[in-house]
Amino acid sequence: MDTILNWINENSGLILHYGIQVVIALVIFLLGGRVAKFCSNLTEKAFDKKKVDKAVGSFVSSIVYAIVFMATILMALSQIGIETTSFIAILGAAGLAVGLALQGSLSNFASGVLIILLRPFKSGDYVEVGGKAGTVKKIEIFSTELRTPDNKVIIMPNSKIMSDSIINYSREATRRIDLVIGVGYDADLRKAKEVLKSVLDQESRILKDPAYNVSVSELADSSVNFIVRPWVNSDDYWPTYWSLIENIKIALDDADITIPFPQMDVHLHKQD
């Protein structure tokens, strides 16, 4: 015990010096974390103020946070006497090893950068990516967050998004509804066509330009098929789609025009 006390007394100045350095390093680390968060929030607010896509603002703010926080760590290490140049070299070698081990994460990061640069979609768009569909809420460094119509959250890796086809349902202002309506072979085709047109004419959400198309498309096995293709604003797509399906069925029933359905005739032969 006396030996320890003697050592402390002999090195009190050195202990005090390093103690102060460690305290300062901790202060730098704690303040740096707050500064990184502040810079990140400031960046995101700046993007919002300039009405830039929220997904872009979120992505860039994440990058800013990572850069400032890494600089804070280097400053704190430098304060306690660690040579940051050597540390950076060691960090680079370690980064190479970690990079090889985390190829998937790096691929997600690179894909996130491509999403921001190419902008195949933006926040608020309804898209289908990687076999999943939903509204884009935000784009992070490694993943993109989607929200489905039934309010489920899907976290999709960016690499999976960029390696597959991307369907953006919201980019264009208008969309075409494609319906196939079959009527029986005994139906009056002229009358059936007029009934279908009357339903479209009564739907106020259907656009006048481009004009809708109602034509016979196929003489199928058990029905004569009409294609019904009206154009609507993208926001009106599903409400109009559901309304047309219901109203077409009602109108054809009122006109005594049958819609064929699969049937099977069974013939029994009695053997003596």
Automatic annotation (TrEMBL):
<dbReference type="GO" id="GO:0005886">
    <property type="term" value="C:plasma membrane"/>
</dbReference>
<dbReference type="InterPro" id="IPR010920">
    <property type="entry name" value="LSM_dom_sf"/>
</dbReference>
<dbReference type="Pfam" id="PF05552">
    <property type="entry name" value="MS_channel_1st_1"/>
</dbReference>
<keyword id="KW-1133">Transmembrane helix</keyword>
<feature type="transmembrane region" description="Helical">
    <location>
        <begin position="56"/>
        <end position="82"/>
    </location>
</feature>
<keyword id="KW-0407">Ion channel</keyword>
<dbReference type="GO" id="GO:0008381">
    <property type="term" value="F:mechanosensitive monoatomic ion channel activity"/>
</dbReference>
<feature type="domain" description="Mechanosensitive ion channel transmembrane helices 2/3">
    <location>
        <begin position="63"/>
        <end position="103"/>
    </location>
</feature>
<keyword id="KW-1003">Cell membrane</keyword>
<keyword id="KW-0472">Membrane</keyword>
<comment type="subunit">
    <text>Homoheptamer.</text>
</comment>
<dbReference type="InterPro" id="IPR011066">
    <property type="entry name" value="MscS_channel_C_sf"/>
</dbReference>
<comment type="function">
    <text>Mechanosensitive channel that participates in the regulation of osmotic pressure changes within the cell, opening in response to stretch forces in the membrane lipid bilayer, without the need for other proteins. Contributes to normal resistance to hypoosmotic shock. Forms an ion channel of 1.0 nanosiemens conductance with a slight preference for anions.</text>
</comment>
<keyword id="KW-0997">Cell inner membrane</keyword>
<feature type="transmembrane region" description="Helical">
    <location>
        <begin position="88"/>
        <end position="118"/>
    </location>
</feature>
<feature type="domain" description="Mechanosensitive ion channel MscS">
    <location>
        <begin position="105"/>
        <end position="171"/>
    </location>
</feature>
<dbReference type="Pfam" id="PF21082">
    <property type="entry name" value="MS_channel_3rd"/>
</dbReference>
<comment type="similarity">
    <text>Belongs to the MscS (TC 1.A.23) family.</text>
</comment>
<dbReference type="InterPro" id="IPR049278">
    <property type="entry name" value="MS_channel_C"/>
</dbReference>
<dbReference type="InterPro" id="IPR049142">
    <property type="entry name" value="MS_channel_1st"/>
</dbReference>
<feature type="transmembrane region" description="Helical">
    <location>
        <begin position="15"/>
        <end position="36"/>
    </location>
</feature>
<dbReference type="InterPro" id="IPR008910">
    <property type="entry name" value="MSC_TM_helix"/>
</dbReference>
<keyword id="KW-0813">Transport</keyword>
<keyword id="KW-0812">Transmembrane</keyword>
<dbReference type="Pfam" id="PF21088">
    <property type="entry name" value="MS_channel_1st"/>
</dbReference>
<dbReference type="InterPro" id="IPR023408">
    <property type="entry name" value="MscS_beta-dom_sf"/>
</dbReference>
<keyword id="KW-0406">Ion transport</keyword>
<feature type="domain" description="Mechanosensitive ion channel MscS C-terminal">
    <location>
        <begin position="177"/>
        <end position="259"/>
    </location>
</feature>
<dbReference type="InterPro" id="IPR045275">
    <property type="entry name" value="MscS_archaea/bacteria_type"/>
</dbReference>
<protein>
    <recommendedName>
        <fullName>Small-conductance mechanosensitive channel</fullName>
    </recommendedName>
</protein>
<dbReference type="Pfam" id="PF00924">
    <property type="entry name" value="MS_channel_2nd"/>
</dbReference>
<dbReference type="InterPro" id="IPR011014">
    <property type="entry name" value="MscS_channel_TM-2"/>
</dbReference>
<dbReference type="InterPro" id="IPR006685">
    <property type="entry name" value="MscS_channel_2nd"/>
</dbReference>
